[in-house]
Amino acid sequence: KFETMVYKRLVEIGRVVFIAKGDNEGKLATIVNVIDGNKVLVDGPSSGVVRTVRNLKDLQLTKFRLPIRLQQRTKNVKKVWDEQEISKKWGESTWAKKLSARATRAKLTDFDRYKLMRAKQSRNRLVRAEFAKLRKAANKA
Q1: What is the pLDDT of residues 16-50, one digit of tens each?
Q2: Rounded to two decimals, what is the model's pTM?
Q3: What is the pLDDT of residue 7?
Q4: What is the dihedral of CA 21, 26, 32, 37, to 10 degrees?
Q5: What is the pLDDT at residue 87?
Q6: 3-state secondary structure the chain
Q7: Which long-range contacts (CB under 8 A, 24 or more apart) does 95-100 make?
Q8: Quick one: average pLDDT of 60-75?
Q9: How far apart are CA 46 and CA 49, in angstroms?
């Protein structure tokens, strides 16, 4: 009896990866060749990543995949990347939005954090008041 496949993101030619550690950290690249169980050749001409060998421990697989062949040349990878609009799709993904929100939050000054706290307090006050009205109406009914 065979189990269904659990993994949806596989290390494969054309898989778009997010570089989590090392140089070019935070950029996207594409797997162009799998060297062995630990290393892959990545290329990201549209995101400013030079073709290099990277350890899989430094990479995170994304849901995007490019229809390219083994050892595809850089100009062809760039062409397919731009046709598929990977940079645009990445910008719209939840993952990218979380990263940008985290970066924005890290840049906050003390005063910005204070303003954020006060805004949250007033929002929560409004939510509580509305909830109390609804509960009161429900109790009457």
Answers
A1: 999 999 999 999 999 999 999 999 999 999 999 99
A2: 0.80
A3: 83
A4: 30
A5: 94
A6: CCCCCCCCCCCCCCEEEEECCCCCCCCEEEEEEECCCCEEEEEECCCCEEEEEEEHHHEEEEEEECCCCCCCCHHHHHHHHHHHCHHHHHHHCHHHHHHHHHHHHHCCCHHHHHHHHHHHHHHHHHHHHHHHHHHHHHHHC
A7: 95/18, 95/62, 99/26
A8: 95
A9: 8
